[in-house]
Amino acid sequence: MSARADPDPQEAPVPSPFAADRLPDGSRRYGHRAVLARRALLAGIVAAGAGTAALTARPGGGERAPAGADPAVHDPVLQAPVAAGGPVEPPPGFSTSDPASPWVVVNKRHPVTPPDFVPPALATVGGKEVAALVAPDLTALLAAAGAEGVRLTLTSGYRSAGHQRAVHERAVRRDGAETAESLSARPGHSEHQTGLAIDFGSAVQPGCAVEDCFGLTDEARWLAERAGAFGFLQRYTARNSPVTGYAPESWHYRWVGADLVARMAERGVSTLEEFFGVTGGPRYA
Ligand SMILES: [Zn+2]
């Protein structure tokens, strides 16, 4: 899946509501706006805690469904996302359906709405366009990796609906419709259209771009360990595949902010679907 070869002229980046100043020693110093945004986020997560308890008392999605069962039908999480404590609501101002929200959940049940959505502001990092919200953390991640001799590249960032259509049609021609469905999102169903998703690559092994062998590179290992500290979630794993509806992708990360990554880890969930009680699975709505 190649990125757009000819990026559009860039708009001025908009800072993340959570952005912190980075000090020379790598630590962060939060300004007033960032403190308020984090406080609102944490208050909302705590308020949602009762609702998520029933969801998070169980291990990750891949182990739950009976053998051969369609997890989208039989997994109680996916079947009945509203837990005993009530629906899990993100705090005010943080939507799971607004594609401009850092917490938007895009999957086969929940397309990008509106279908022609374009991020309100794009920035260029590592030669690729991303939502401006992502730029500070992505820039810091690339700098930290580089300082440790880890040679990450960006294979793909923001992809327009039209570009995703071309990617998907190419996958269908190459792999057949059935295989392509698990590997490539239909147009309107890709996180890349939000500008919040990144496909990373390795400058050491460029041939492993968006291939399973990327998972064996030092760059992939570094990401698995460190990306969360910069707010990036590995979105598609072997274990959570029944929940996300996608085959594992060691290169695909989704920016949600470091606070949410930490909260998800505390609750032992690896998917936004489980955390927010949003339906997912391999079938398109
Ligand atoms: Zn991707």
What would you say this structure looks like, in words?
The chain is α+β, with helices and mostly antiparallel strands. The protein has one domain (20-276): Muramoyl-pentapeptide Carboxypeptidase, domain 2 (2-Layer Sandwich), CATH 3.30.1380.10. The protein is 34% helix and 11% strand. It contains ten helices and eight strands. The protein has helices at 32-56, 71-74, 76-79, 135-147, 161-175, 177-183, 218-226, 241-244, 258-267, 272-276, and strands spanning 20-22, 28-30, 122-125, 128-131, 152-156, 197-202, 232-234, 252-255. The strands form three sheets. It has a four-stranded antiparallel β-sheet with strand order 5-6-8-7. A hairpin with a 5-residue loop joins strand 1 (20-22) and strand 2. Helix 1 packs parallel to helix 9 and helix 5 (161-175) packs across helix 6 (177-183). The longest helix has 25 residues, at 32-56. The structure holds zinc ion. Zinc ion (ZN) binds next to strand 6. Zinc ion binds at residues 156, 192, 197, 199, 252.
CATH architecture: 2-Layer Sandwich
* Name of the CATH first level: Alpha Beta
What global shape is seen?
globular
* Count of structural domains: 1
Which molecules are bound in this entry?
A: zinc ion
Supply the helix-strand structural class: alpha+beta
Q: CA-to-CA gap between the ends?
A: 24 Å
Largest sheet: 4 strands, antiparallel
Number of DSSP E strands: 8
Average pLDDT confidence is 77
Number of helices: 10
Give the neighbour order of strands across the main sheet: 5-6-8-7
SS strand fraction: 5-15%
Radius of gyration: 18 Å
Compressed to H and E, one letter per element, the order equals EEHHHEEHEHHEHEHEHH
Low-confidence stretches: 1-21, 25-87
CATH topology: Muramoyl-pentapeptide Carboxypeptidase, domain 2
Helix content: 25-40%
